[in-house]
Amino acid sequence: MNKNNLADVIILARGGGSLEDLWPFNEEIVAQSIYDSKIPIISAVGHETDFSISDFVADLRAPTPSAAAELAVPDVYELNKKIISYQDRLRMALLKKVELMKLSFEKVMSSVVFREPLRKVNDNYLSLDNLLKRLEAGIKIKSEKEKNKYIELVTKLDALSPLKTLSRGYSITEKDGKIIKRKDELKKGDKIDLRFTDGRKSAIID
Q1: Which of 58, 59, 133, 159 could be bridged to 40 by S-S, CB 3.0 to 4.6 A?
Q2: 1 domain residue, yes or no
Q3: Is the pLDDT of residue 32 over 80?
Q4: Is 117 buried (19+), middle (13-18) or exposed (0-12) by CB count in 10 A?
Q5: Contacts of 39 (CB under 8 A, 6+ apart)
Q6: How far apart are CA 136 and CA 41, in angstroms?
Q7: Which of 74, 94, 128 is the last residue of a domain?
Q8: How far apart, in whole angstroms, are the C-alpha atoms of residue 37 and residue 117?
Q9: Is residue 145 part of a domain?
Q10: For residues 148 and 188, what is the distance between their CA atoms, to the nearest angstrom?
Q11: Cβ of 41: how many Cβ atoms within 10 Å?
């Protein structure tokens, strides 16, 4: 028999009977043979309420021999109806999938990115331009503040400069390159230098 043929099946059947009549189907050797069979076996031993070990090791159990025959030889008409039903379901599923893909495609193609591909670029360009202008304005303001601080510091330093003091009529007394701050640092005969705003003069303490 061809194992690829749907009709290749063994029906193990017996009509109803006593427990002794059905006992051979509980034998270990029978159960082992059923289990080892390469051909599918349908067990239909006894009446519907009867059970044997053969029922549990077979590939399928049928309540009666006639039911086993129906299982072994499927109704071609019913099989054809199932195949047509599966084909219809598959066709509907494919049509629905195609329709969903079509809707997704139309939605994507109608988006702004595809209708106006440069719009996003232009929007980003405008945003970048605004950021650059804000950055330039911030740098300019910061630069002005730092410049004003610099001028203020220079003004303060200039006001504290010894040369500024000289311009107000004061002079600086130096001896041996050192500034004299107290009179007891000088004695008679010391040579000193007097620094004015417009130059120097030498003198001797008398």
Answers
A1: 59
A2: no
A3: yes
A4: exposed
A5: 1, 3, 8, 9, 10
A6: 89
A7: 74
A8: 69
A9: no
A10: 50
A11: 19
Extract the tokens encoding 68: 């086993």
Backbone angles phi, psi at 61, to 5 degrees: -115, 135
Contacts 24+ apart (CB under 8 A), 195-199: 195/166, 195/171, 196/166, 196/171, 197/163, 197/166, 197/167
pLDDT tens digits, one per residue of 75-106: 777 778 888 999 999 999 999 999 999 888 88
Q: Per this entry, what is the length of the chain?
A: 206
Query: Which tokens go with 89?
Result: 């379901």
60: pLDDT strictly greater than 50: yes
In-domain check, residue 161: no
**Last residue in a domain, options 38, 55, 74:** 74
Q: Which of 26-40, 75-89, 100-114, 154-168 has the lowest mean pLDDT?
A: 154-168
- Whole-number percent of the chain with pLDDT over 70: 81
What per-residue string of b and e applies to 130-141 under the rule 16 or more CB within 10 Å gives b? eeeeeeeeeeee
Q: Which domain holds residue 185?
A: 169-204
